[in-house]
Design a protein that fits this description.
- It is a single chain.
- The strands form 4 sheets. Strands 3, 4, 5, 6, 9, 10, 11, 12 and 13 form a 9-stranded mixed β-sheet that branches. A 4-stranded antiparallel β-sheet has the order 15-16-17-18, covered by helices on one side.
- The protein has 2 domains: about 220 residues, no CATH class; about 400 residues, Alkaline Phosphatase, subunit A, CATH 3.40.720.
- The chain is of the alpha/beta class.
């Protein structure tokens, strides 16, 4: 009896290619001699790899599934249908085989799956193809691919037999087609969460080679193509652009505080020497979701009683009264706080392919000083590629939603802020060496749900009632956390930085609504910050936080950060760089300068910030904004935001 192929042939082809990609990984493990890694870790990498394989195979076989409704005797004969499927399968086989052989050579050269490098090679086909032809045995690869394709196709084509699919009725046929389509969609998405699978899932171990092997080259290649199409803005063509040499001259003058020793005349890399001895303080950054200044009591003109706990913390710590976020998304906040990197147009750098390895970060510097680094998040770390960015840039300990056992409360975005802080306390209490941790909260996010009986809710029918209650809960949670840990051994030796990732509901009639970028920034550590000023009036951005933390720690290090130590910025010379859609802005005490697409620039008066009788310095903002964003774009595109020793 001849075999039916409707579901069975697809299933068998799926299994074959999963096995094929499994063998590729085995080869890469052996070729790279990863024998010192635990077997359990390698197996985990292989399981992650299967998820990527299912996605890739699903997309390639998807075309056949989409065409299933045409497999009707009134439209096409069964014989022709079988030929179409066989031809498609043979072409698919050659693509998989040839691509994977080429990728093995690429991996030998770069230690990575196909990525942005491979995409960029396509821009210069003549030069690159000539180089490939001279360096690689292309004819041999092609012959091997053809031979393997012949035998593999012969095997797979045996699965493709005449089908009962032609003979069943319309309703049954349509139902079967719909079920197959849904299953393939689930496989291609590989997630029931807010976002489908992305490359960050593969960054799970301390071995970068194993992380790369766990991925799938087709997946990473398509991701790199998507990244280039969606995110890569040609800054030089679209905005007023300053060449690297001139931009470096301008920025060096702003970064120089008479203690910097610039390593090279052609870049901003410098040796930072602090006047105090190095201190092994722990560092905990609490990145509060959507906590705009307009809702924080000590900064707000409207809401004075929403955040009593944060206000109390502010009284005991150092507050930056004129601090502004990089942008309007959490990924922008992480980019600014952890990387001290300006918000170049397009997506945040943490979501881009060129920042996935050796991007300069605060965590890299602290790791080099013996710190244990943590990212603790109540949601899924795969979101916005956070897992991939952190794991490949100095943060090897990642705690996410799945690691919370029996949480107090869960929303669509993850566990509550209380759960987050309880887990953090549990982890911090077990540390035996200095640690750095970034905590990212979730409760102050739509749909604004949180545990009952924690706060006195606003019940009146007023605008933004749900958001206001969520902010009250956010304040409650952080207040309870700091109250709880005050007697912990690690508390006195820990520097806390409380900062919002961004504001809320960014809109307005202004070119860039400055008030919506205004955020709280508090440095808190009663025993650590006794001799520091209590209020900073200087205009600062999120990019200034990392250099300031390292100054408080008294760490000497080599830096290429774009930000400045807040304590060294003259009060009338501070500024913040922001991104709002395609607009790039520079906020100072008295002005807002905006870079527009189309090589336009405009400077307008800023009436939002309190001047405190300060006389703003007449900064050449049009030059500064162009130079900063030009150099940041140049450093990202050319992968120069890196210091090898870290």
């Amino acid at each position: 009896m001849k075999e039916k192929f409707s579901l069975k042939f697809l299933f068998k082809i799926y299994l074959f290619w999963i096995f094929y990609f499994f063998l590729i990984r085995i080869y890469l493990i052996i070729d790279n001699q990863l024998f010192n890694i635990k077997l359990s870790t390698i197996l985990k990498g292989f399981l992650i790899g299967i998820r990527y394989d299912i996605v890739v195979i699903g997309y390639f076989l998807g075309l056949i599934v989409v065409l299933f409704p045409l497999l009707d005797k009134h439209i096409i004969s069964e014989k022709i249908c079988k030929k179409i499927v066989i031809i498609y399968n043979s072409i698919l086989t050659f693509i998989f085989v040839f691509f994977s052989i080429i990728e093995i050579y690429f991996f030998k050269e770069f230690g990575q799956r196909f990525n942005h490098k491979s995409v960029e090679y396509l821009i210069y086909p003549k030069e690159v193809l000539g180089n490939i032809w001279a360096y690689y045995p292309i004819i041999r690869i092609f012959i091997i691919a053809v031979i393997l394709t012949f035998f593999i196709s012969k095997l797979l084509n045996r699965f493709i037999q005449p089908s009962e699919y032609f003979k069943i009725g319309f309703i049954k046929k349509s139902s079967l087609w719909f079920i197959i389509l849904v299953l393939m969609f689930i496989g291609c998405r590989s997630s029931f969460d807010h976002r489908p699978i992305n490359i960050s899932l593969a960054y799970f171990s301390n071995s970068q080679l194993l992380n790369e092997i766990s991925n799938n080259g087709f997946f990473t290649f398509i991701y790199a193509v998507y990244d280039k199409i969606k995110n890569e803005v040609d800054f030089e063509k679209k905005y007023i652009y300053t060449n690297e040499i001139e931009a470096v001259k301008t920025i060096k003058k702003l970064l120089d505080n008479n203690k910097n020793e610039f390593v090279d005349t052609n870049n901003i890399t410098r040796k930072i020497t602090n006047s105090t001895e190095e201190k092994k303080y722990n560092v905990v950054i609490i990145l509060e979701e959507s906590l705009g200044a307009e809702y924080v009591g000590y900064l707000s003109k409207k809401y004075h009683n929403l955040t009593p706990n944060i206000d109390k913390i502010a009284e005991q710590g150092i507050i930056c009264e004129n601090a502004f976020s990089n942008g309007t998304r959490t990924s922008r906040g992480i980019e600014g706080v952890i990387s001290s990197f300006p918000p170049i147009p397009g997506e945040s750098t943490i979501k881009r392919s060129k920042s996935q390895n050796n991007f300069f970060t605060l965590s890299r510097v602290l790791k080099s000083k013996g710190y244990t680094n943590w990212f603790i998040y109540g949601g899924q770390a795969m979101f916005d590629n956070m897992r991939g960015f952190f794991n490949s840039n100095g943060v090897n300990n990642i705690v996410e939603e799945k690691d919370f056992i029996s949480p107090i409360f869960e929303s669509t975005w993850g566990v509550s802020d209380e759960d987050l802080f309880n887990k953090a306390d549990e982890i911090f209490s077990q540390q035996t060496q200095p640690f750095f941790s970034l905590l990212l909260t979730t409760s102050n996010h739509m749909p604004f749900t949180f545990p009952e009986n924690r706060i006195k809710k606003i019940i009146e029918d007023i605008p933004e009632r749900d958001r206001l209650n969520a902010i009250k809960y956010t304040d409650y949670a952080i207040g309870e956390f700091l109250k709880k840990i005050k007697n912990r051994p690690y508390f006195k030796n820990t520097l806390f930085v409380i900062v919002a990732d961004h504001g809320t509901r960014v809109f307005g009639k202004n070119i860039i609504p400055i008030n919506k970028f205004h955020i709280p920034v508090i440095f808190y550590g009663p025993e650590i910050l006794k001799n520091y000023p209590k209020k900073i009036k200087t205009v600062v951005g999120q990019i200034d936080i990392a250099p300031t933390i390292l100054n408080i720690l008294g760490i000497n290090y080599t830096s290429t950060f774009f930000g400045r130590n807040i304590f060294k910025i003259p009060e009338n010379e501070g500024f913040a760089l922001v991104q709002y859609g395609e607009l790039l802005g520079m906020i100072t005490l008295d002005s807002l300068t905006v870079l527009y697409p189309g090589k336009k620039i405009k400077k307008v008066k800023n009436d939002y910030i309190k001047k405190y009788q300060l006389s703003p310095k007449n900064l050449n903002t049009k030059t500064i904004i162009s130079d900063y964003f030009s150099l940041a774009w140049h450093y990202y595109i050319n992968e120069k935001y890196i210091i090898e020793q870290y």
